[in-house]
Amino acid sequence: MKALVYTGEKELTYIEDAEMPVLRDGEVMVRIDAVGICGSDLHAYLGHDSRRPAPLILGHEGAGIVCGADNAGNRDLDGQAVVINPLVSCGHCSACRTGFENQCGAREIISMAPRQGAFAEYVAIPKRNLVPVPEGMSMTTASLAEPIATGWHAVTKGAKLITRPLVESKALVYGGGAVGLAAALSLHAQGCRQIFLAETNELRRETVKSAGICTVFDPLTNPLVASNAIDLVVDCVGNKHTRMGSSDAVKPGGVIVHVGLQDSIEGLDVRKFTLQEVIFTGSYTYTMQDFHATVEAMHNGALGALDWIQERPLSEGADAFDDLLNGRIAAAKVVLRPEK
Amino acid sequence: MKALVYTGEKELTYIEDAEMPVLRDGEVMVRIDAVGICGSDLHAYLGHDSRRPAPLILGHEGAGIVCGADNAGNRDLDGQAVVINPLVSCGHCSACRTGFENQCGAREIISMAPRQGAFAEYVAIPKRNLVPVPEGMSMTTASLAEPIATGWHAVTKGAKLITRPLVESKALVYGGGAVGLAAALSLHAQGCRQIFLAETNELRRETVKSAGICTVFDPLTNPLVASNAIDLVVDCVGNKHTRMGSSDAVKPGGVIVHVGLQDSIEGLDVRKFTLQEVIFTGSYTYTMQDFHATVEAMHNGALGALDWIQERPLSEGADAFDDLLNGRIAAAKVVLRPEK
Fold this sequence. Notes:
Chains A, B: Pfam families: ADH_N, ADH_zinc_N. Two copies of one chain form a homodimer. By secondary structure, chain A is an alpha/beta fold.
């Protein structure tokens, strides 16, 4: 099959003879129609993710069509348009039993060994990881479900931890990429009416502004948010500077949800967290319930027009990575499309 | 009046002509009968707390008898035996309105300017900060309410954040002083049946063991707790080493409650917190509801015999500080008693 393979630091190679994935029990093959590029793909491409050594097919934000039978011969999903939840959990540990499959100790994700990713014609995936694409939704839009579910999960987690409802609360989001924008859209959809979003890239700021649901600012030149003012911070960047900003902005008893993970050293104000009872929580991907809820919210219009996408052919994926790393793309999401 | 005054780094001076406190609106004078020494008093005594510069009367764990009228002439509490909640909040901000007076931005605490502390014959305190001492409880025991309420609050906060009930959960407490022991007793009283407590001082380990409610160990020589095994960590020490231990011990989706604050640099594993959705929260003192609930639990026997006290005369307070700092005291709490 055709695939865009990460072959070494800052090197992506488009090939036409990649090995087909092999079906395990309960799995089907999905022919990929649209697959987004995630910040974690860029991170791996730069050689910064020890969990993703080359050679590897990256990509985990896929939508496509189920092809053929599962490995027991059942064709119940054959031809179905689906969004892929790329996180494969064991299904029977205490985390899975309590609906937190994303905390499963045996979890795997496509684009990390032993599973190849979705920058390819085909991906093998358990049937229980598939969500049908609703009537009328394009496959490109459907591929946004994964990053949006990440924002939706973070906001849902934060909303459970703050003292008062979102509609009474002030929220600050770091990052105007797909997850940051999705967090802002999820905050708005879940009732929040005072949303601030910090983004350093001017092109991205314009894209977020056009969604019309939050106050967008450049934290480097315009420290818009006062100290101790924010009920809920959703940090979709996750570096020392955003953690310092989060620590400063959060109010006593407030909540910081840490989603991004550019680095993991410094930036937290342990003294303030202790004396002011701040809650800091990590947020990793989504549960299957988040995935279903996200697709429904995308479908019913709660998350707006979802028009912040730029499409590229999979074969030109290397150029897209280069443009993204050099800040030349205004769209919050670049979606690659395998040639048919 | 008589008072033990912190007069400079590592210097406590017992004097007999300290100025009497002045009543503000709604306040009464309490003649102190018993007052515990807290780790934060030791911290200030060593010159490590910039919020508590000398000269200052330290001490905030007081119990005593209300003397006379409030400053409007009402004698409704005159002669009442009371425990003092030393945290004075504004009563009308959003934190106070939602029952989190401990997060009030205008909070004051006795033993920090402008309020003198309770290592003295008298303290001025708002009437709403007083809890009656139940029938049959000694004043020395009553003075434990403050450190126990700190542990009770931390455990109550942790219990709300963990996924499953305490009775299903494993808990780890760092520190076998009064707050650590109180946290373990509160965990037990609230239903937890798998409690581990780490303490480096052998004398203190023996005291905690005799309470009979938890497995006590020395974390320096006996790493009893496995990685990723604990649902709820209550860190009543709060230094780099206990934060590293907490980060390692906590399981995916688990909770760390940070109560102690020996230092505030390093020790948190931000990468694990993010990828494993660990919740880290600060815990500061207690609410008025925690204070009432604690006195009730002390009274009804839910917290055991409360016999881990050593009494000393207030005039010999300097020696008690010295013994505590040199680890020569097995009791989890030293209580000073002003001479009558």
